């Protein structure tokens, strides 16, 4: 794998790779999200208990899954950056972080909007909501640490270390919050059971998840391209790129 | 002993130096000159292994210093702008702590003798913060008498020292060079001793 | 020059230096304790003095106060060494940096965590905590406060080079403290109900074991980044 990865250590190659991949991500994300939303919001049958308000899962569940997915990809990029001293992987960490934070925020907002009719309150100290909130704190920590450094090289490395520390802690935090919740709240909240979901709702949901994944990939690639250009702006290949328009 | 290969350092979008090459043999002393902001300290910190260059490598005895940094540290004596002397501790405690951290053992009388030789008689056991800038600098420079490192990297060692102190320091430099050591230093003052093996590297301020 | 190659000597020297420095400025050891005490005093004033209510909230209050007061000393753990260049000297030492870091964290715990463990009986008395919970309070503080020092030192190492690192450090570190808070308070809660709380202690102990190995490495790389 190392031999395959190595050429992309060069910024220019990484930039080209981003360019090659980007169209696919754009197509997949636009297609899947449009199809998934139209299907999910207009055609999928209404839930017999929650009526139409359940339809928010077509945004809520994908963003929640992707908020965690983005964090693990960020941590993997951080490990690669620190172990092999790859500057591009560092840039990828910085590129993913805001996208993941946005996904977490979407999951929290939609979750709370869903909670109002279902639980009767905007915020309930449900284990999943709480974990998601802490995940948002971790994202914001990585971002504010990076931006606090004047030297962006040092900032990138510091952000990588924090991302790795965070990913080691994440399962512990998640487990502890689950455990705390069952201890304090018992079975007060009836959870929407995803595994028992009807296929007519499951398919649009899966399509939406794929669409959101491609969306995260797309946004990350666009941000990564910008970061690479920023860092390499004095290099001849960037100047050529600019002069070509 | 020390080899610098194609070293490039970019700080805050400004290229300090690019493709810098030089080498330092045992018995040689090199003075790095240049205006403020030219990157002298950055260069020394890269060679000491505190920061990473954007490109290029630092070889010590033909081995990249990042390969086995702890072994390189064994042969390195670094005294920077910030000398690593704690303000609350006494001169004796500071020297003692530095020796242990670097794996040296020493006898109490030896340290007191040396502090006396450097003009700190009677000041060995008061907190460093009550001493003058020049005296504080001397406490840091005691290390030059108490190590067997081959490579000395000194950033502005003469700051705040009086003439007598500068002369003593240069005598110690000569002794180190005669013993097969090497010295890399920056200074705005000219060296008053004539070192036969002196080389100069000039860093220009680049925009 | 004799060269001694003992990791233990290095550990002792770094530990002794940090502890000595704290004891020379006694305010550093007394102030966090006073802060701990004052925070605990504020709660009965804010929520009312009924003993039952206080006893119910005591585990949470004691632990939140413990988290906040360890944060006070954390900012200083590497700050002075960074400012005066001692950190560079530690990095340029032939010994592994994680060892020196371990000594510094141990010194921080001795001067910040241990006093809280010792004072625990007083605090539980103030909060009307039932007497059977005293053992659990002391034990959780004993296992939990070193964890706080380790996790906190990662944040301190990452922010030591920044001008205003103090608040940022709290933002980074407090979310990571959550598991410690949950398991520690739950252990005390369980002990109030006269049930076995060894499970929670075991989890805290396991986390401490992981931190003991992994945290010094993370802190060292954070320090190297901050110094560069």
UniProtKB/TrEMBL annotation, chain A:
- Topology of the protein relative to the lipid bilayer: Multi-pass membrane protein
Q: What residue stretches are annotated with the Cytochrome c assembly protein domain? A: 6-184
Return one GO MF term.
Answer: heme transmembrane transporter activity
| Family annotation (InterPro entries) | Cyt_c_assembly (IPR002541), Cyt_c_biogenesis_CcmC (IPR003557), Cyt_c_biogenesis_CcsA/CcmC (IPR045062)
| Entry's Gene Ontology BP terms | cytochrome complex assembly
Work out whether the entry's keyword set contains Transport. yes
The chain's coiled-coil residues are none
Q: Which UniProt keywords apply?
A: Cell inner membrane, Cell membrane, Cytochrome c-type biogenesis, Membrane, Transmembrane, Transmembrane helix, Transport
Q: Give the main localization category.
A: membrane
- Report TM segments: 21-44, 56-84, 91-115, 127-146, 158-177, 201-224
Q: Which GO terms describe its cellular component?
A: plasma membrane
Please indicate which superkingdom the organism of origin belongs to.
Bacteria
Instruction: Tell me where in or outside the cell this protein is found.
Output: Cell inner membrane; Membrane
- Give the family this protein belongs to, as stated in its UniProt record: Belongs to the CcmC/CycZ/HelC family.
The entry's function note states: Required for the export of heme to the periplasm for the biogenesis of c-type cytochromes.
PANTHER family (UniProt xref): CYTOCHROME B_B6 PROTEIN-RELATED, HEME EXPORTER PROTEIN C
Protein name in the entry: Heme exporter protein C
Species whose genome carries this gene? Pseudoalteromonas luteoviolacea H33
Provide the taxonomic classification: Bacteria, Pseudomonadati, Pseudomonadota, Gammaproteobacteria, Alteromonadales
């Amino acid at each position: 794998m190392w031999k395959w990865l190595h050429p992309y250590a060069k910024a220019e190659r990484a930039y080209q790779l981003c360019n090659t991949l980007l169209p696919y991500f754009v197509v997949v994300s636009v297609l899947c999200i449009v199809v998934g939303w139209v299907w999910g919001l207009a055609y999928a049958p209404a839930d017999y208990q929650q009526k139409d308000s359940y339809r928010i899962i077509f945004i809520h569940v994908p963003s929640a899954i992707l908020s965690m997915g983005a964090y693990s990809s960020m941590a993997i990029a951080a490990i690669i950056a620190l172990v092999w001293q790859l500057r591009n992987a560092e840039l990828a960490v910085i590129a993913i972080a805001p996208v993941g934070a946005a996904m977490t925020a979407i999951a929290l907002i939609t979750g709370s909007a869903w909670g109002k009719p279902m639980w009767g309150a905007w915020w309930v100290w449900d284990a999943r909501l709480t974990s998601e909130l802490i995940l948002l704190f971790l994202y914001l920590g990585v971002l504010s640490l990076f931006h606090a450094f004047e030297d962006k090289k040092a900032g990138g490395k510091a952000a990588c270390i924090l991302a790795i520390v965070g990913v080691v802690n994440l399962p512990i935090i998640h487990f502890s919050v689950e455990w705390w919740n069952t201890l304090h709240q018992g079975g007060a909240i009836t959870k929407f059971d995803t595994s028992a979901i009807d296929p007519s709702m499951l398919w649009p949901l899966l399509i939406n998840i794929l669409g959101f994944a491609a969306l995260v990939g797309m946004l990350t690639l666009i941000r990564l391209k910008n970061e690479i250009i920023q860092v390499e702006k004095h290099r001849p290949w960037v100047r050529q790129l600019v002069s070509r328009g | 002993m020390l080899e610098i290969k194609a070293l490039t350092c970019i700080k805050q979008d400004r290229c300090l130096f690019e493709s810098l090459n030089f080498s330092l043999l045992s018995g040689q002393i090199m003075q790095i000159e240049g205006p403020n902001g030219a990157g002298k300290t950055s260069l020394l910190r890269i060679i000491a292994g505190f920061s990473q260059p954007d490109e290029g490598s630092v070889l010590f005895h033909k081995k990249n210093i990042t390969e086995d940094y702890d072994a390189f540290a064994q042969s390195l004596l670094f005294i920077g702008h910030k000398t690593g002397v704690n303000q609350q501790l006494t001169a004796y405690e500071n020297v003692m702590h530095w020796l242990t951290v670097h794996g040296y053992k020493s006898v109490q009388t030896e340290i007191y003798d040396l502090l006396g030789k450097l003009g700190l008689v009677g000041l060995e056991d008061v907190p460093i913060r009550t001493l003058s800038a020049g005296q504080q600098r001397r406490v840091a420079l005691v290390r030059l008498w108490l190590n067997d490192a081959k490579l000395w990297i000194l950033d502005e060692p003469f700051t705040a020292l009086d003439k007598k102190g500068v002369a003593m320091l240069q005598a110690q430099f000569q002794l180190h060079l005669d013993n097969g050591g090497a010295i890399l230093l920056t200074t705005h003052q000219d060296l008053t001793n004539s070192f036969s093996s002196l080389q100069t590297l000039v860093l220009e301020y680049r925009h | 020059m004799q060269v001694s190659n003992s990791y233990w000597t290095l550990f002792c020297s770094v530990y002794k230096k940090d502890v000595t420095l704290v004891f020379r400025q006694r305010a550093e050891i007394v102030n966090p304790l006073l802060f701990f005490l004052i925070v605990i005093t504020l709660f009965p004033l804010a929520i009312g003095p009924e003993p039952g209510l206080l006893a119910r909230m005591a585990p949470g209050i004691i632990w939140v106060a413990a988290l906040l007061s360890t944060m006070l000393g954390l900012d200083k753990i590497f700050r002075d060494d960074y400012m005066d260049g001692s950190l560079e000297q530690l990095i340029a030492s032939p010994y592994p940096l994680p060892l020196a870091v371990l000594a510094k964290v141990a010194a921080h715990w001795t001067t910040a965590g241990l006093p809280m463990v010792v004072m625990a009986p007083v605090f539980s008395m103030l909060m009307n905590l039932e007497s059977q919970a005293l053992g659990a309070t002391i034990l959780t503080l004993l296992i939990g406060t070193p964890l706080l020092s380790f996790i906190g030192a990662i944040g301190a190492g990452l922010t030591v080079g920044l001008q205003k690192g103090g608040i940022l450090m709290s933002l980074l570190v407090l979310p990571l403290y959550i598991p410690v808070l949950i398991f520690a308070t739950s252990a005390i809660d369980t002990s109030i109900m006269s049930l076995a709380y060894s499970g929670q202690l075991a989890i805290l102990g396991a986390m401490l074991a992981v931190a003991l190995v992994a945290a010094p490495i993370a802190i060292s790389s954070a320090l190297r980044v901050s110094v560069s």
